[in-house]
Predict the 3D structure of the following.
Amino acid sequence: MLFFASNPFNFIIFLLSNLLLFHTKIHADHLTENCPDAANYTTNSPFETNLKTLFPSLSKSALSTGFSNDSLGDDPDRVYGLVLCRGDVDGSTCESCLDPAIQEIQEVCSNKKSGIIWFQDCMIRYSNQDFFGTIDVRSRTLLWNVNNRSEADNPRIDGRVLVDRLASEASSSPLMFATGNKTYENGETRYGMVQCTRDLSPGNCISCLAELSKGLEDCCGGKRQWRILAGSCNIRYDAYNFIETAKPTSQEAGDNTKSVKVIIIAVVSTLLGVLILVACFFFYQSRRKRAQRAKKKERHQKAMTEIMGAQTMQEEEVKAQELPLIDLDTIEEATNYFSDENKLGEGGFGPVYKGMLPDGKQIAVKRLSRSSVQGLEEFKNEILLIAKLQHRNLVRLLYCCIEKAEKMLVYEFMPNTSLDVFLFDLDKRAKLNWTRRFNIVLGIARGLLYLHEDSRLRIIHRDLKASNVLLDNEMNPKISDFGLARIYGGSESGINTNRIVGTYGYMAPEYALEGIFSVKSDVFSFGVLLLEIISGQKNHRFYISQHSQSLLAYAWRLWKEGKGIELIDPHIVNSCPTNEALRWIHIGLICVQEDPIDRPTMSTVVLMLGSESVTLPKPTQPTFSVRREAIIAKETSSASSISNPTVSDIGPR
């Protein structure tokens, strides 16, 4: 019913198609076919043209007699064809069988130069060889009902007696057709039918039926219902009366025709009336639902304006129009009403749930905690970026929902969770071989390059770390969580802020200590992440007691001492190209330079990663490292001004 409710025309099509199907199956049940593999023809060839021209001609000729055979074309594209209807059916029934049979044989024997198809009331045969007047039982096909009780239970019933009698009658009949029945001693009656194609002589007809019934006792003696079909003749034996009754007189036929027409007109009129009422009902329902959706969208947009602020919404009018919205009801059903089984985790924004939309698409839903001030700011931030970021290495934000005090963001679902789950787990880390780590590093770099230089807006992520890199089902990386991101005007001189946000261990020193950030802040975070991926160790938890070193300091010491290979994760040290891994360490150290000016841009980083011919500058010792992990929002003692007025601050002002 949901299928019909979504589109009223589906209901109409359903009824009409079933009426047509019912009409077709009354007279045109497809039994079986035989399409030898001897030769093929090509589409749009002269043979196919001759075949499609010959079939309608044969069908038209057979309507009055029930049989027609002819050929068309010149060798080697000449087609020989034959159609045959049951000897006891009228022209209308013959036509109702031949029309679908012609269509069916061209489909089931597509591109074959010979074929036979048998329907309940007719058969069609064609070939590129002349078969007229020749007995063909090579295409013999046996059909029976396996559920029938065996005749072996009643040895007094012998089907051959009836078949032999009918074969004799058919060979002497102008129609090469005979039907009849026989009642046995136990009172049971059996019905039979035999038929030959009328291109055979009487002698060939009885020979064909005799050849077809050879071994009858072995194949069919124990069955109450069976058929043997061949190209030149066929036999049917049954326990129920399938034989057509006597044809009505012309007067009776006329009266019957009138009655049928009256019934058909009454049924069709009633059906059309019902269909019109149904169409009107569904049209009304569809219109009402559209109006409800429009009102809900209006309420949604009003709520969006209230949250984002009227001035902001005016500035972002185009983006607001592009913003995809989703109903709360849909999200609740997709997440099983935010069940604990579907909960993926929880952060400063609020809980995250796995869900599945009605079309089968998996999603991840961030549900803003009502008590989270930080989460509300991140929610606003991501809403303003939703229509601006489209890249294969960025997680897609699909929808947002603001309804009934709920505020939610809907993302594409990443089945392999985040990079830190694999990278910092001793068991799962082994799945990150060198090839996968290479693809992950290059994907993250390309994603950052898009944010910094290629997107419609220039974006500084400000919170790049392993847990914010998600992995799809093929372990491709996608940067996520743009709640702390900032739009900037392209200057690399840096931006001052009085609100420092991010994760210690990944923060550039100028940002953590002075509140100055730029694209080079993201480059620093990338350098930390690159060294983590190479070593399999967390920077903000790495500590060697005897040396009191962070991961950055430890990497620098090994690099200076020419022992960089000792930093490489033991899981890959024996399988990775050593020179390439050492080059990665070199690039990582360049990215974490103290002075932002000494750090490369992401376009240069991508070039360094992808080409060994690029000469790498010598790094200097990193002077900044922190071993404490925290998400912070630190207010400095004095407010700082924004040095670049072209920057759009989409955090709180």
